[in-house]
Amino acid sequence: GDMANFELLINSAAQRGPDNWTTIYYTSLAKDLGPALEQFDTLIDLRPDDWYPVYIRGVVYYHTAGNYDLARADFEQAIALYPNVNVPYLSATMLALRQGRIPDAQGYVETVVREYPDITTTMRALDALYGESDSMTRYGAYFYSAGTYLALGLYPQVIEDATTVITALDEDPALEVLLLSGAISTNLADLYTLQGLAYCNLDDPANAVTAYTNALAITPDFAVVHLLRAQSFQALGQDEDAAADFELAVDHTLGSDFDAWIAAALAGDWTCETFFEYDVE
Questions:
Q1: Phi/psi at 260 (5° precision)
Q2: Which residue among 15, 87, 167, 266 has its CA within the 20 to 30 Å range from the CA of 187?
Q3: Alpha-carbon dihedral of residues 77, 69, 56, 178, nearest 10 degrees?
Q4: Can you give the pLDDT at residue 256?
Q5: How far, in Å, CA of 92 to CA of 212, rounded?
Q6: What's the pLDDT tens digit per position in 200-247?
Q7: Residue 210's closest CA among 202, 220, 200?
Q8: pLDDT tens readout for residues 101-114
Q9: pTM score, two decimals?
Protein backbone atom coordinates (compact mmCIF):
# COMPACT_ATOMS: atom_id res chain seq x y z
CA GLY A 1 0.00 0.00 0.00
CA ASP A 2 0.87 3.70 -0.04
CA MET A 3 2.62 4.05 3.31
CA ALA A 4 3.08 7.83 2.93
CA ASN A 5 -0.68 8.36 2.64
CA PHE A 6 -1.24 5.80 5.39
CA GLU A 7 0.96 7.75 7.80
CA LEU A 8 -0.77 11.00 6.79
CA LEU A 9 -4.17 9.51 7.57
CA ILE A 10 -2.96 8.08 10.87
CA ASN A 11 -1.55 11.42 11.99
CA SER A 12 -4.74 13.23 10.96
CA ALA A 13 -6.89 10.72 12.81
CA ALA A 14 -4.72 11.02 15.91
CA GLN A 15 -5.24 14.79 15.94
CA ARG A 16 -9.00 14.60 15.39
CA GLY A 17 -9.83 11.62 17.63
CA PRO A 18 -10.58 11.71 21.35
CA ASP A 19 -7.72 11.41 23.84
CA ASN A 20 -8.81 7.93 24.94
CA TRP A 21 -9.24 6.55 21.40
CA THR A 22 -7.15 3.39 21.28
CA THR A 23 -7.81 2.32 17.70
CA ILE A 24 -5.16 4.70 16.44
CA TYR A 25 -2.53 2.97 18.55
CA TYR A 26 -3.53 -0.48 17.35
CA THR A 27 -3.37 0.72 13.74
CA SER A 28 0.09 2.13 14.27
CA LEU A 29 1.30 -1.06 15.93
CA ALA A 30 -0.17 -3.06 13.08
CA LYS A 31 2.16 -1.34 10.64
CA ASP A 32 5.27 -0.74 12.73
CA LEU A 33 6.53 -2.95 15.56
CA GLY A 34 9.30 -0.53 16.46
CA PRO A 35 7.67 2.52 18.05
CA ALA A 36 8.94 3.98 21.29
CA LEU A 37 8.07 1.91 24.34
CA GLU A 38 6.25 4.95 25.73
CA GLN A 39 3.65 4.40 23.04
CA PHE A 40 2.95 0.92 24.38
CA ASP A 41 2.74 2.30 27.89
CA THR A 42 0.10 4.78 26.76
CA LEU A 43 -1.95 2.09 25.08
CA ILE A 44 -1.71 -0.22 28.09
CA ASP A 45 -2.88 2.60 30.34
CA LEU A 46 -5.87 3.14 28.07
CA ARG A 47 -6.71 -0.55 27.83
CA PRO A 48 -5.54 -2.18 31.09
CA ASP A 49 -7.65 -5.30 30.47
CA ASP A 50 -6.40 -5.92 26.92
CA TRP A 51 -3.79 -8.67 26.63
CA TYR A 52 -2.55 -7.68 23.18
CA PRO A 53 -0.61 -4.43 23.80
CA VAL A 54 1.06 -5.95 26.87
CA TYR A 55 2.08 -8.94 24.78
CA ILE A 56 3.45 -6.79 21.95
CA ARG A 57 5.50 -4.74 24.40
CA GLY A 58 6.89 -8.03 25.68
CA VAL A 59 7.78 -9.00 22.13
CA VAL A 60 9.74 -5.77 21.75
CA TYR A 61 11.59 -6.44 24.99
CA TYR A 62 12.30 -10.01 23.88
CA HIS A 63 13.27 -9.60 20.24
CA THR A 64 14.62 -6.07 20.03
CA ALA A 65 15.75 -4.97 23.47
CA GLY A 66 16.90 -8.43 24.60
CA ASN A 67 15.48 -7.82 28.08
CA TYR A 68 14.20 -11.26 29.01
CA ASP A 69 13.01 -10.34 32.50
CA LEU A 70 10.77 -7.52 31.28
CA ALA A 71 9.57 -9.71 28.41
CA ARG A 72 8.66 -12.45 30.86
CA ALA A 73 6.69 -10.03 33.02
CA ASP A 74 4.71 -8.81 30.02
CA PHE A 75 4.06 -12.30 28.64
CA GLU A 76 2.82 -13.45 32.03
CA GLN A 77 0.60 -10.39 32.37
CA ALA A 78 -0.83 -10.99 28.88
CA ILE A 79 -1.62 -14.60 29.78
CA ALA A 80 -3.27 -13.50 33.03
CA LEU A 81 -5.62 -11.34 30.93
CA TYR A 82 -7.07 -14.45 29.22
CA PRO A 83 -6.02 -14.11 25.57
CA ASN A 84 -8.39 -15.49 22.95
CA VAL A 85 -5.55 -17.05 20.92
CA ASN A 86 -2.42 -19.02 21.81
CA VAL A 87 0.05 -16.34 20.68
CA PRO A 88 1.42 -15.27 24.10
CA TYR A 89 1.77 -18.87 25.25
CA LEU A 90 4.04 -19.72 22.32
CA SER A 91 6.35 -16.76 22.86
CA ALA A 92 6.37 -17.43 26.60
CA THR A 93 7.37 -21.03 25.87
CA MET A 94 10.44 -20.04 23.87
CA LEU A 95 11.47 -17.44 26.42
CA ALA A 96 11.12 -19.98 29.22
CA LEU A 97 13.38 -22.38 27.31
CA ARG A 98 16.00 -19.67 26.93
CA GLN A 99 15.88 -19.00 30.65
CA GLY A 100 16.04 -22.69 31.56
CA ARG A 101 12.52 -22.67 33.06
CA ILE A 102 11.55 -26.02 31.55
CA PRO A 103 8.48 -26.74 33.74
CA ASP A 104 7.05 -23.34 32.75
CA ALA A 105 7.60 -24.11 29.06
CA GLN A 106 5.94 -27.50 29.48
CA GLY A 107 2.98 -25.90 31.21
CA TYR A 108 2.49 -23.38 28.42
CA VAL A 109 2.57 -26.12 25.79
CA GLU A 110 0.08 -28.19 27.78
CA THR A 111 -2.27 -25.18 27.80
CA VAL A 112 -1.90 -24.72 24.03
CA VAL A 113 -2.83 -28.36 23.42
CA ARG A 114 -5.72 -28.29 25.86
CA GLU A 115 -7.25 -24.87 25.16
CA TYR A 116 -5.88 -23.51 21.86
CA PRO A 117 -5.30 -26.39 19.43
CA ASP A 118 -6.94 -24.68 16.44
CA ILE A 119 -4.27 -22.66 14.63
CA THR A 120 -6.82 -21.20 12.20
CA THR A 121 -8.21 -19.02 14.98
CA THR A 122 -4.84 -17.39 15.49
CA MET A 123 -4.24 -17.01 11.76
CA ARG A 124 -7.61 -15.32 11.25
CA ALA A 125 -6.93 -12.92 14.11
CA LEU A 126 -3.55 -11.93 12.68
CA ASP A 127 -5.00 -11.47 9.20
CA ALA A 128 -7.77 -9.27 10.57
CA LEU A 129 -5.32 -7.05 12.43
CA TYR A 130 -2.50 -6.76 9.92
CA GLY A 131 -3.84 -7.83 6.54
CA GLU A 132 -3.16 -11.02 4.64
CA SER A 133 -0.48 -9.55 2.37
CA ASP A 134 1.80 -8.07 5.02
CA SER A 135 5.13 -9.90 4.90
CA MET A 136 5.98 -9.33 8.56
CA THR A 137 2.61 -10.76 9.53
CA ARG A 138 3.15 -13.81 7.37
CA TYR A 139 6.47 -14.34 9.11
CA GLY A 140 4.95 -14.10 12.57
CA ALA A 141 1.96 -16.23 11.63
CA TYR A 142 4.19 -19.07 10.46
CA PHE A 143 6.09 -18.95 13.74
CA TYR A 144 2.84 -19.30 15.67
CA SER A 145 1.56 -22.07 13.42
CA ALA A 146 4.87 -23.95 13.64
CA GLY A 147 4.80 -23.68 17.42
CA THR A 148 1.24 -24.94 17.57
CA TYR A 149 1.98 -27.84 15.25
CA LEU A 150 4.97 -28.81 17.40
CA ALA A 151 2.80 -28.83 20.52
CA LEU A 152 0.34 -31.09 18.68
CA GLY A 153 3.07 -33.43 17.42
CA LEU A 154 2.46 -32.57 13.76
CA TYR A 155 6.13 -32.49 12.84
CA PRO A 156 5.98 -32.35 9.02
CA GLN A 157 3.82 -29.23 9.28
CA VAL A 158 6.36 -27.66 11.65
CA ILE A 159 9.10 -28.17 9.10
CA GLU A 160 6.94 -26.89 6.26
CA ASP A 161 6.03 -23.65 8.01
CA ALA A 162 9.52 -23.07 9.36
CA THR A 163 11.03 -23.62 5.93
CA THR A 164 8.53 -21.18 4.41
CA VAL A 165 9.81 -18.38 6.64
CA ILE A 166 13.47 -19.26 6.26
CA THR A 167 13.12 -19.32 2.49
CA ALA A 168 11.30 -15.99 2.56
CA LEU A 169 14.33 -14.35 4.13
CA ASP A 170 16.20 -14.95 0.90
CA GLU A 171 13.39 -13.55 -1.22
CA ASP A 172 11.79 -10.68 0.70
CA PRO A 173 13.98 -7.57 1.14
CA ALA A 174 11.70 -6.28 3.89
CA LEU A 175 12.33 -9.35 6.01
CA GLU A 176 16.05 -9.18 5.31
CA VAL A 177 16.18 -5.60 6.57
CA LEU A 178 14.36 -6.63 9.72
CA LEU A 179 16.75 -9.52 10.23
CA LEU A 180 19.81 -7.30 9.88
CA SER A 181 18.32 -4.78 12.31
CA GLY A 182 17.94 -7.49 14.94
CA ALA A 183 14.17 -7.13 15.04
CA ILE A 184 13.48 -10.74 14.12
CA SER A 185 16.79 -12.54 14.66
CA THR A 186 15.79 -13.85 18.09
CA ASN A 187 12.51 -15.12 16.70
CA LEU A 188 14.35 -16.76 13.81
CA ALA A 189 16.56 -18.65 16.26
CA ASP A 190 13.40 -19.84 17.99
CA LEU A 191 12.03 -20.99 14.65
CA TYR A 192 15.19 -22.97 13.88
CA THR A 193 14.83 -24.58 17.31
CA LEU A 194 11.27 -25.66 16.52
CA GLN A 195 12.48 -27.00 13.19
CA GLY A 196 15.25 -28.97 14.88
CA LEU A 197 12.86 -30.51 17.39
CA ALA A 198 10.59 -31.57 14.54
CA TYR A 199 13.42 -33.19 12.57
CA CYS A 200 14.62 -34.94 15.71
CA ASN A 201 11.18 -36.38 16.39
CA LEU A 202 11.07 -37.62 12.80
CA ASP A 203 14.35 -39.49 13.40
CA ASP A 204 16.35 -37.19 11.14
CA PRO A 205 19.33 -36.21 13.32
CA ALA A 206 21.36 -34.77 10.44
CA ASN A 207 18.78 -32.13 9.59
CA ALA A 208 18.16 -31.59 13.29
CA VAL A 209 21.84 -30.76 13.76
CA THR A 210 21.66 -28.30 10.86
CA ALA A 211 18.64 -26.55 12.35
CA TYR A 212 20.12 -26.39 15.84
CA THR A 213 23.40 -25.09 14.42
CA ASN A 214 21.53 -22.31 12.63
CA ALA A 215 19.80 -21.39 15.89
CA LEU A 216 23.09 -21.32 17.79
CA ALA A 217 24.71 -19.18 15.11
CA ILE A 218 22.22 -16.48 16.12
CA THR A 219 22.12 -17.10 19.88
CA PRO A 220 25.20 -19.14 20.88
CA ASP A 221 24.29 -19.13 24.59
CA PHE A 222 21.01 -21.05 24.10
CA ALA A 223 21.85 -23.87 26.53
CA VAL A 224 18.80 -26.02 25.75
CA VAL A 225 19.71 -26.09 22.07
CA HIS A 226 23.24 -27.21 22.92
CA LEU A 227 21.73 -30.16 24.79
CA LEU A 228 19.45 -31.00 21.89
CA ARG A 229 22.24 -30.77 19.33
CA ALA A 230 24.48 -32.91 21.53
CA GLN A 231 21.91 -35.70 21.46
CA SER A 232 21.55 -35.44 17.69
CA PHE A 233 25.33 -35.60 17.35
CA GLN A 234 25.23 -38.76 19.48
CA ALA A 235 22.65 -40.27 17.14
CA LEU A 236 25.03 -39.60 14.27
CA GLY A 237 27.94 -41.19 16.11
CA GLN A 238 29.76 -37.87 16.45
CA ASP A 239 30.65 -38.30 20.10
CA GLU A 240 33.33 -35.60 20.26
CA ASP A 241 30.93 -32.99 18.92
CA ALA A 242 28.30 -34.20 21.37
CA ALA A 243 30.72 -33.91 24.28
CA ALA A 244 31.60 -30.36 23.25
CA ASP A 245 27.95 -29.36 23.21
CA PHE A 246 27.26 -30.98 26.55
CA GLU A 247 30.19 -29.07 27.99
CA LEU A 248 28.86 -25.79 26.64
CA ALA A 249 25.45 -26.54 28.14
CA VAL A 250 26.97 -27.33 31.53
CA ASP A 251 28.71 -23.95 31.46
CA HIS A 252 25.38 -22.13 31.73
CA THR A 253 24.23 -19.22 33.87
CA LEU A 254 20.61 -20.29 34.27
CA GLY A 255 20.64 -21.26 37.93
CA SER A 256 20.93 -24.54 39.80
CA ASP A 257 17.46 -25.81 38.85
CA PHE A 258 18.63 -26.26 35.27
CA ASP A 259 21.37 -28.67 36.37
CA ALA A 260 18.79 -31.42 36.89
CA TRP A 261 17.67 -31.04 33.27
CA ILE A 262 21.25 -31.30 32.06
CA ALA A 263 21.64 -34.51 34.06
CA ALA A 264 18.44 -35.89 32.54
CA ALA A 265 19.66 -35.02 29.04
CA LEU A 266 23.05 -36.62 29.68
CA ALA A 267 21.27 -39.77 30.89
CA GLY A 268 19.15 -39.85 27.75
CA ASP A 269 15.91 -39.43 29.69
CA TRP A 270 15.06 -35.91 28.57
CA THR A 271 15.15 -35.92 24.78
CA CYS A 272 13.37 -34.28 21.87
CA GLU A 273 10.76 -37.05 22.10
CA THR A 274 10.00 -36.39 25.78
CA PHE A 275 10.78 -32.70 25.63
CA PHE A 276 7.45 -31.29 26.78
CA GLU A 277 6.32 -34.22 28.90
CA TYR A 278 9.33 -35.38 30.94
CA ASP A 279 9.19 -34.73 34.68
CA VAL A 280 12.67 -34.21 36.05
CA GLU A 281 11.44 -34.99 39.58
A1: -65, -35
A2: 266
A3: -170
A4: 92
A5: 20
A6: 999 999 999 999 999 999 899 999 999 999 999 999 999 999 999 999
A7: 200
A8: 999 999 999 999 99
A9: 0.84
